[in-house]
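> example.struct
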């Protein structure tokens, strides 16, 4: 519950493409910004803005980081794992599938949005994650051990990158959240972009600007 209060508002990119937000994430967003919301409201879906009955509104599933951050992900797996998926416009020939991400209820778990980008052959080309956590050690460990990212000099937080011929391929940025609450003074904002080197990688303009 503490983690949900930290950051389901960060499903913001997901919200832009899906106005009928499940009550789970809506209530968590209210908690993150100090609006009143009971524990029962967070656990139990209610009637949505579009008038959907409670029993027809999908809840965001809990998905571990190790399960979500894999190059083996397929569009079919995404659809089967999340009850609601938003399609987004990718780069040139890429198409994106965006989902809300909740990895658990511990301080090292994340709440945010996750986007998978696939090419015309439905091969995964990029994973983009934006979210909040209380302790970044879990996602840093996965970035280092599973994807080869290494620490880089940074001001105001942690920065990790995997480089090929000195050029950045994948990047993880960890910063203190822009809005701090007294009950969660150590909240972290996490931005991660993983690109498959063998699939014609390129960093997004957003991540390139972050590095600069």
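> example.seq
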């Amino acid at each position: 519950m503490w983690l949900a209060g930290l950051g389901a508002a960060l499903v913001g990119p997901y919200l832009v493409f899906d106005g009928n937000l499940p009550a789970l994430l809506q209530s968590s967003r209210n908690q993150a910004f100090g609006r009143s919301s009971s524990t029962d409201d967070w656990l139990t879906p209610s009637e949505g803005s579009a008038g959907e009955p409670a029993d027809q509104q999908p809840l965001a599933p809990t998905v571990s980081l190790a399960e979500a951050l894999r190059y083996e992900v397929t569009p079919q797996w995404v659809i089967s794992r999340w009850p609601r998926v938003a399609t987004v416009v990718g780069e040139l020939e890429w198409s994106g599938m965006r989902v809300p991400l909740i990895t658990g209820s511990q301080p090292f778990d994340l709440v945010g949005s996750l986007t998978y980008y696939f090419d015309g052959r439905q091969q995964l080309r990029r994973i983009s994650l934006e979210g909040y956590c209380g302790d970044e050690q879990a996602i840093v460990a996965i970035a280092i051990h599973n994807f080869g990212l290494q620490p880089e000099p940074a001001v105001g937080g942690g920065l990790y990158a995997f480089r090929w011929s000195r050029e950045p391929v994948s990047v993880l940025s960890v910063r203190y959240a822009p809005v701090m609450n007294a009950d969660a003074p150590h909240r972290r904002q996490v931005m991660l972009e993983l690109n498959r080197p063998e699939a014609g990688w390129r960093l997004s303009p957003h991540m390139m600007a972050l590095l600069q």
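> remarks
The chain has a mean pLDDT of 75.
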